[in-house]
Amino acid sequence: MQDVTGHSWDAGKAALPAWSLPKDAVDRIALPGDWPDRVTREWALGGSTGEGVRVCILDSGVDATHPSVGELESAVVISIGDDEEIVADEDTEGDVSGHGTACAGIVRRLAPESRISSVRVLGSSFTGSGAVLLGGLRYAIEQGFDVINMSLSTTKKPFASVLHELADSAYFKRTVLVASAHNMPVESYPWRFSSVISVGSHEEPDPLAFFYNPSPPVEFFGRGVNVEVPWLGGRTLSVSGNSFATPHITSICALVLSKHPELTPFQLKSVLYLTANNVGGGR
Amino acid sequence: MTEQPDLRAAVAAGVVGSEESFRALLSAIVEVARSIFGAKASSILLLDQETEELVFEAVVGEGEDTLLGTRFPAGTGIAGWVLATRTPLVIEDVQNDPRFASDVAEGTGYVPKGLMAAPLLHEDGALGVLSVLDRPEQSLFSLQEMELLGLFANQAAIAVDLLLKAREAERLLGAAGGDAEVVARLASAVNALEDEQREAGFRLLDHLARTLGK
């Protein structure tokens, strides 16, 4: 069954009201009563391995032969067809820069039982890369991934409104978009949109340490400095940048969603807030 | 193409400065970047939109004799990722593997152990990449350095934008043929005058413009 937003509800569950709340529907939107009085890190993700959560790495591809990455659920490369349609072919090339492999490695390390897929939007051609990026994001949202890791941004203003629309559509379809914030003083997207989880870097070595930023637009800080990651050719590198902080928050989202699959992106963001090191003290 | 823009380009070509002076500015930027980070080398790569290649426009330190003008495909490698995603990153090879950073090493024999790279962003375009290679091995990277790299990249982007404008003005001047060249010389000559001579030069141009009906 699908509501007007295209969201599928569990079979057997009565349709929930989308636009208004008649009196007799109040009981039907009662939330699960297992939220504790105080939301702790232990409640949120304790014991979770990310099992069952589908994570998409929207990047340069992923080298699945690297021992720190392992098997992928799927891998496609995006291109734009003659009629401007989005084409998703099976990706046999792997990773064109090493970056996507690094992101996948971080997710595999922190949420080992999550199901990782790669959607490659880089490398086929430099010109038109913006259209491929948009096409890749649209494709990933259509696939219904639970979490999309987007360690990249665009500065092209004409793409901003489409990206905004895509980010909102992901939000309402329960796909969490985790986007890397820009650490240079430029206007870029989609991390600035409030429907995504935007990520900057902190310098702590704890991979599960994360902080809420009371001065958005950057909303959370994840580990982003001197991180060991897999790279091309079976290598391991030490890397820094917001683009590596992003898969840390992606992994934390996967851990929480694996334990609490009913959470909407709004609720997930609330859990992140309540369990951030500078709010709940990381307990 | 109308005649008017070409003549304006000619004026621009006459006064905005030569390619050499902008190249000198880019060299100065990479020199300061290398010095501040205590690195072995620093470079600026520019995107050639027509061929979709990255070209070394300024190099200081290791590889400066051989890298200038060297090209490689813009869609791949670490610099390609930085350019396409508009995102800076820092990478250090913990295994000292010679296959690392092959886009830099290609044709030079110089294999960096680590690199910092930031995109050169101007308005909504990505013009190229600023790289700093091989910081001191014993120093761990910090966010402060990332911020500094971003500041340098911004400065470099402004210089690159001026260089590209100067090149475009020269190109338009060349396309307009010999007729426009006199306008460039005139603009350059008046621009070089000082004090009373400069004022007199502008008065002369004003009279000329009135005579031509403007």
How would you sum up this structure, described in words?
The complex is a heterodimer of chains A (283) and B (214). Chain A has 283 residues and is α/β, with parallel strands linked by helices. Chain A has one domain: Peptidase S8/S53 domain (Rossmann fold), CATH 3.40.50.200. Chain A has six helices and eleven strands. Chain A has a nine-stranded mixed β-sheet with strand order 3-2-4-1-5-6-7-9-8, sandwiched between helices. In chain A, a hairpin with a 5-residue loop joins strand 10 and strand 11. The termini of chain A are far apart. Chain B folds into two domains: 3-10 and 172-211, no CATH class; 17-171, Beta-Lactamase (2-Layer Sandwich), CATH 3.30.450. Helix content of chain B is 52%, strand content 20%. Chain B has helices spanning 3-15, 19-37, 77-85, 102-105, 143-176, 178-192, 195-211, and strands at 41-48, 53-61, 71-73, 89-93, 114-122, 125-133. Chain B has a six-stranded antiparallel β-sheet, sandwiched between helices. In chain B, a hairpin with a 4-residue loop joins strand 1 and strand 2 (53-61). In chain B, helix 1 packs across helix 5, helix 1 (3-15) packs parallel to helix 6 (178-192) and helix 2 runs antiparallel to helix 5. Chain B is elongated and about 75 Å long. In chain B, 42% of the residues are buried. The mean pLDDT of chain B is 81. Strand 11 of chain A pairs antiparallel with strand 4 of chain B, so a sheet runs across the interface.
